[in-house]
């Protein structure tokens, strides 16, 4: 891992240099916006919106890209800059490509008779991202579509250029399975649909999951009024303050309530199993699993102690060891 | 101005505070946080505090729900929350909603908001999914990795605490199922027509999410239900006697979540239902003893018990006994457990039939019906009553339109 970031930085700077450069030659719409194409589109889409017919008809906004299409006989012309960028990514091992999404913005309606021009730029190249497919870079191109020279809409198209994730088949990756420290939990090998649902991580709660990764269970504390809070939110329900820090949970708690899950079965979880609502010694509650206790022995008031368990390559969860008396 | 003439809204409300975050290409923080900051700024501008706010309006497809912005902004109970659909066309309508609420006394201080990372949001995050997970998704995300995956399990977490607190067993929930199925059995429109159950059937049904059994959980239904609403005056000229909306209310509790409100108070009640109940009793001038029929939302039996307690029909912990003794005709169509699960809309129809006297299981002389909506989520309720003028007429002679 060490040393790698510098290499990335230099490489990424080279990629970033392509931002703002044209991705495709400036083009002119093959046909002006016209009623027959609108009609065909609406019929194909089953769209009966009255706005798209009659004397004051507008074109369906989602047709935006259709007005720039070159038809079957021609291919859109990539610029040298775009070819170079993709080439750089190919050479660095990111030779696989997948289209991830596109999005459109509509600034003004297009009407029959509008003459279309468009140009396309490389809008952004992301930092190196880790994805399920493998590490890679998102490349976004933006096409500005103009009618009579006035910006009418934009069409963004995003691809991921990535190095396909390797399965650990190399002999050097293979470890002695008899060595207990190399014995992987069979749960680690599960197909994605058999894995536990992932935590939903966003900017407001990322700190919690970073703590979990360090085997710390962090509770937010309002620095305005001192109230501890869980779940994580950007502000305090007691005083409204947005200022907060964290305290690390001692790990002691009790079962405040629990459910024994029986039905329906999910691939990851083998019913029956218990899910607990744990009240931490600090006074906040968290949903978790009670482990080390049979599902039918979990009780309200049972003391529990925090531990961290790995469920697969990516997932570590804070769980609670039941303390039976 | 309405289409047909002057409305009563003009001159009744004003915008008194404005506030915003900076406008940028990359805010560097969540949409929820932006919403909270904007709300604070507007309140400060107005010289008000979060404690003054009792209404919130936003757009649909906004990732920051009213209840979550309230939760993070220090705002407490809400008596009004609304989202307007149709994208940017909603902007002025949020203010109109607020004015309507204020002009009618439904809320005193309403905050309208909209906040997003339109520019940077789509690039944030890792992997092929670009979108920053919404606050709604994040709220559920605290439960899913641990296998708490279903609505039944979310209800069961509170139900377990209810049983523990009042020293009851899961059989306490069976009374609700038995009553619902009793009425469904004599309702030809009900899915479970002709199929009553006993407490023993309930106790023998399999666990779904302990302490909930199969017969505590409502069925799933394909179907539809519509309702027509008009003025009382107009309704008097139509074929059926009106079911007058004597009171209508929304409610969200403090630190409300959608089905996963595990982190507040003692889990043995439904604080959002209490907010609705207070308003319905106050506006209608009625009390629990005045109600002839209760149509209480029953996707899961435990929340019927908690609703009875929150509305004051009985004391906390006494609802199982209250239902067992059938102190109040309850879900006379068979409820959602017995008739159909149409997210409460079929219950409103049943209330209307009781007031008209056309229900299949009529409650003689029913004139005042309580109807409730989904529980464990921000909720609402109605008190429907017979037309007072219709009653006056019926004492002097037969009503004209029955
Ligand atoms: Zn605070």
Structural notes for this entry:
The complex is a heterodimer of chains A (325) and B (402). Chain A is α+β, with helices and mostly antiparallel strands and 325 residues long. Helix content of chain A is 14%, strand content 32%. Chain A has 2 domains: 7-162, Hotdog Thioesterase (Thiol Ester Dehydrase, Chain A, Roll), CATH 3.10.129; 206-322, no CATH class. Chain A contains 4 helices and 13 strands. In chain A, the strands form 3 sheets. Chain A has a 5-stranded antiparallel β-sheet. A 5-stranded mixed barrel of chain A has the order 9-10-11-13-12. A 3-stranded antiparallel β-sheet of chain A has the order 7-6-8, covered by helices on one side. Chain A is elongated, with a radius of gyration of 28 Å. Chain A starts with a helix and ends with a strand. Chain B is α/β, with parallel strands linked by helices and 402 residues long. In chain B, strands 6-9-8-7 form a 4-stranded mixed β-sheet, with helices on both faces. A 3-stranded parallel β-sheet of chain B has the order 2-1-3, sandwiched between helices. In chain B, strand 4 (207-210) and strand 5 form a beta hairpin. Chain B is globular and about 65 Å long. Chains A and B meet through strand 2, strand 9, strand 10 and strand 11 of A and helix 1, helix 2, helix 4, helix 5 and strand 4 of B. Strand 9 (252-261) of chain A pairs antiparallel with strand 4 of chain B, so a sheet runs across the interface. Chain B: Residues 381-402 are annotated as: Disordered. Chain B: Residues 254-378 form the Thiolase C-terminal domain. Chain B: One of its GO terms (molecular function) is acyltransferase activity, transferring groups other than amino-acyl groups. Chain B: This is Lipid-transfer protein.
């Amino acid at each position: 891992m060490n040393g790698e970031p510098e290499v990335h930085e230099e490489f990424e700077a080279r990629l970033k240099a392509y931002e703002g450069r044209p991705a495709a030659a400036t083009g002119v719409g093959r046909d002006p916006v016209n009623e027959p194409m609108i009609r065909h589109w609406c019929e194909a889409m089953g769209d009966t919106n009255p706005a798209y017919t009659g004397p004051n008809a507008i074109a369906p906004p989602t047709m935006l890209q259709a007005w720039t299409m070159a038809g079957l006989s021609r291919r859109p012309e990539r610029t040298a800059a775009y070819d170079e960028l993709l080439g750089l990514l190919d050479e660095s091992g990111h030779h696989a490509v997948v289209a991830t999404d596109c999005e459109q913005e509509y600034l003004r309606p297009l009407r029959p008779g509008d003459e279309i021009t468009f140009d396309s730029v490389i809008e952004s190249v992301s930092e190196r991202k880790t994805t399920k497919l493998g590490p890679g870079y998102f490349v976004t191109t933006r096409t500005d579509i103009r009618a009579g020279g006035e910006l009418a809409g934009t069409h963004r198209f995003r691809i991921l250029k990535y190095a396909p994730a390797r399965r650990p088949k190399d002999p050097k990756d293979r470890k002695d399975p008899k060595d207990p420290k190399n014995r992987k939990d069979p749960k680690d090998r599960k197909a994605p649909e058999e894995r536990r649902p992932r935590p939903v991580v966003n900017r407001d709660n990322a700190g919690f999951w970073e703590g979990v990764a360090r085997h710390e269970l962090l509770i937010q504390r309002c620095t305005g009024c001192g109230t501890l809070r869980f779940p994580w939110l950007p502000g305090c329900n007691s005083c409204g303050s947005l200022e907060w820090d964290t305290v690390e949970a001692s790990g002691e708690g009790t079962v405040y309530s629990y459910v024994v899950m029986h039905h329906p079965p999910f691939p990851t979880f083998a019913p029956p199993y218990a899910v607990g609502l744990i009240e931490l010694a600090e006074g906040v509650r968290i949903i978790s699993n009670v482990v080390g206790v049979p599902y039918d022995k979990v009780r309200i008031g049972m003391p529990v102690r925090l531990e961290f368990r790995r469920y697969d390559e990516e997932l570590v969860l804070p769980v609670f060891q039941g303390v039976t008396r | 101005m309405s289409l047909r003439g002057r409305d009563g809204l003009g001159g009744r409300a004003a915008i008194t505070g404005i506030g915003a975050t900076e406008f940028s290409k990359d805010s560097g923080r969540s949409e929820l946080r932006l919403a909270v900051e904007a709300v604070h700024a507007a309140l400060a501008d107005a010289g008000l505090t979060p404690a003054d706010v009792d209404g919130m309006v936003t757009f649909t497809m906004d990732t920051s729900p009213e209840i979550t912005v309230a939760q993070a902004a220090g705002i407490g109970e809400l008596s009004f929350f609304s989202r307007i659909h149709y994208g940017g066309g909603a902007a002025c309508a949020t203010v109109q909603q607020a004015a309507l609420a204020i002009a009618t006394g439904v809320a005193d201080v309403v905050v309208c908001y909209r906040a997003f990372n339109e520019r940077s949001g789509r690039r944030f995050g890792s992997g092929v999914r670009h979108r920053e997970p919404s606050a709604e998704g994040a709220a559920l995300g605290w439960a899913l990795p641990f296998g708490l995956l279903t609505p039944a399990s979310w209800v069961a977490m509170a139900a377990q605490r209810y049983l523990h607190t009042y020293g009851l067993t899961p059989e306490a929930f069976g009374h609700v199922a038995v009553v619902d199925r009793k009425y469904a059995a004599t309702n030809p429109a009900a899915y479970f027509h002709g199929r009553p159950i006993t407490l023993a059937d309930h106790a023998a049904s399999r666990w779904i999410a302990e302490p909930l059994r199969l017969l505590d959980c409502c069925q799933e239904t394909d179907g539809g239900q519509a309702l027509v609403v008009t003025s009382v005056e107009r309704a008097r000229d139509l074929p059926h006697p009106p079911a007058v909306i004597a009171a209508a209310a929304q409610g969200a509790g403090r630190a409300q979540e959608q089905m996963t409100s595990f982190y507040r108070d003692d889990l043995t009640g439904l604080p959002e239902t209490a907010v609705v109940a207070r308003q319905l009793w106050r506006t209608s001038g009625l009390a629990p003893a005045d109600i002839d029929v209760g149509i209480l939302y029953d996707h899961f039996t435990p929340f019927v018990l908690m609703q009875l307690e929150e509305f004051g029909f009985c004391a906390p912990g006494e609802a199982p006994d209250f239902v067992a003794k059938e102190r109040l005709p309850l879900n006379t169509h068979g409820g959602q457990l017995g008739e159909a699960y149409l997210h409460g809309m079929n219950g409103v129809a049943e209330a209307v039939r009781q007031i008209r006297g056309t229900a299949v299981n009529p409650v003689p002389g029913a004139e005042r019906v309580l109807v409730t909506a989904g529980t464990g989520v921000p909720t609402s309720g109605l008190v429907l009553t017979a037309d007072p003028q219709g009653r006056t007429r019926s004492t002097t002679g037969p009503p004209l339109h029955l």
